[in-house]
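Narrative of activities, Objective 1.

The group set out to show that a structural description can be obtained from nothing but a protein's sequence at a throughput compatible with the screening campaign. Below is one input-output pair from the validation batch, recorded exactly as produced.
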Amino acid sequence: MMKFARVGALITAATLSVPALADGSVEAGRVKANTCMGCHGIPKYNNVYPTYRVPKLGGQHKDYIIAALKEYRSGDRPHKTMQAQAASLSDQDIDDIAAYLEHAAAHDE
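Output recorded for this entry:
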């Protein structure tokens, strides 16, 4: 009986950890977002061409970041630099980056 309880506990633990991966890892995202901070981490930074103010991402809702990065990756959202950045990102990379950025304070950028 005890053996079945242990197996059940292991299965439950494994099942519960799957949604955590799907939500992204803040710590993994911190590392993966280093490239993002090259532009999005500079206060009041303006892109040269096309000229526009680069948006602050810290504190942004993760669903927005996920949607935007997937649209850049697919080419549905126009911006050649962001398309190039997103092209190599996996869904897990995107989830991790979004988790980190959602939790990043404005002063962390």
